[in-house]
Amino acid sequence: QAQLVESGGGLVQAGDSLRLSCAASGRTLSSYAMGWFRQAPGKEREFVAAISWTGANTIYADSGNGRFTISRDNAKNAAYLEMNSLKSEDTAVYYCAASFGLGYVPPLLPNKYNYWGQGTQVTVSS
Questions:
Q1: Out of 20, 56, 85, 112, which residue is the most buried by the measure of CB atoms under 10 Å away?
Q2: Which whole number is the average pLDDT over 36-46?
Q3: Rounded to whole angstroms, how far apart are CA atoms 105 and 56?
């Protein structure tokens, strides 16, 4: 069983940057794709970005494309989400997740992910 813990969220102003971290324990995640999702109040959880188990392939939702960068460090059993030019509509709880598999393309659907963190709040004031 893997435990994922997100950190790095907070209250920022529009245009600022944040770097979210996801630290894993209990299991080595080098064979897992990693993803970031977010959920705003009253809305469904939505895909933000994902990275393959090797780190060679990444996918982004249109909302974050060009502003967000997902990365991972398998030696540290961690994943990251760098968010730049933040907007008020980026306000949400951000979750990291791990999906077992050695596929070329990381999954986009939440139901493909095996482990989830508890989330970290990101609030962007306009």
A1: 20
A2: 96
A3: 9
